[in-house]
Amino acid sequence: MTTVTPALRLTGDGAIRQEPLRRLLLRQVAEMHAAEKDALQVLAELAAAARSPRLGLLLRLHVAETREHITRLRHIMDRHGVPAGTLGSRGKRGLLEDCIELACSEADDPTVRDTALAAVALHLEHDEIASYQVLRMWASQLGMHDASDAMGMTMGEEQRLESRLIQWSAAHHRASQGRTAFRTGE
Q1: How far apart are the C-alpha atoms of 121 and 59, rounded to whole Å?
Q2: Which letter does DSSP use for residue 6 in this model?
Q3: Which pLDDT tens digit goes with each residue over 73-96?
Q4: How far is residue 35's CA from residue 62's CA, in Å, rounded to a whole number?
Q5: Which end of the chain has less Cβ packing within 10 Å, N or C?
């Protein structure tokens, strides 16, 4: 017999019970709060390591946005009685560690290193977008419109950075291809 966790146990009509979903949402908000605090430090380090002025600027601007994300999450936690703590996700910490390793792997070539830094930021942002999308959906289902709105706002900021990083990466690749062709005489 398969065991279903309490947060996923369905009522007789197929609906997810409100209180277990609320607890799950708030636990995930606390995890995102811890993850954003961890990401803040990593983003600041990525910004400082970037050789491209545009990439550094994108990352520094997102550091400021990330501080606002932390504030929004803290507000939701305060409003719903979730204590501050270091509750974090092993998966998110593992992603951060993998990203740091990737960023450090190409330290010798500044062009490749910036490409790796952008990839690291994209990994982080993509994970955060997915997390905020789920949190927004759950908050909406629970009628927690303030939390849903905050998640939507944050998700939009994460998506904008993701789009800007993709644009930067494409332009950076085109520019580096031009430099390579010039050096090889093509």
Answers
A1: 8
A2: G
A3: 999 999 999 987 656 666 667 766
A4: 15
A5: N
Nearest Cα to 29, choosing from 66, 83, 68? 83
Contact 114, 120 (CB under 8 A): no
CATH at 130: 1.20.1260.10
Distance CA 76, CA 147 (A): 6
Domain, as residue range, for 162 = 17-174
4 located within any domain:
no
Closest C-alpha to 154, from 68, 30, 92: 68
Q: Is the torsion defined by CA of 16, 24, 33, 90 positive or negative?
A: negative
Identity at 23, one-letter amino acid code: R
Note the pTM of the prediction, 2 decimals.
0.80
Backbone angles phi, psi at 16, to 5 degrees: -75, 135
| Tally of domains within the chain | 1
Q: What is the pLDDT of residues 153-166, one digit of tens each?
A: 999 999 999 999 99
